[in-house]
Write a structure and sequence with these properties.
Layout lengths: L1 H14 L6 E2 L1 H10 L6 H11 L7 E2 H10 L1
Helix pairs in contact: 1-2, 2-3
């Protein structure tokens, strides 16, 4: 499990270009594609809203990891 978390952290950091610890929608879409997802833009938007559990318009690593590991 720790190995998977580290892999997710590395993928997250690659798309968090300004290293502020959160990702916006375009970064989220890139992250999903980097992880092998073939979702459309509209499917990514639905996923973004689901992952953004506090509805602040950005996704923290904790939000992302929790969501990814549950699916």
């Amino acid at each position: 499990m720790e190995e998977r978390i580290e892999e997710l952290r590395e993928c997250f950091a690659e798309v968090d270009k300004n290293a502020d610890g959160v990702i916006q929608f375009s970064e989220f879409e890139s992250l999903l594609h980097n992880l092998g997802s073939e979702l459309s833009a509209s499917e990514c938007r639905i996923g973004f809203k689901e992952v953004d559990s506090d509805n602040n318009g950005e996704i923290s690593f904790d939000e992302f990891a929790t969501w990814w590991l549950e699916h």
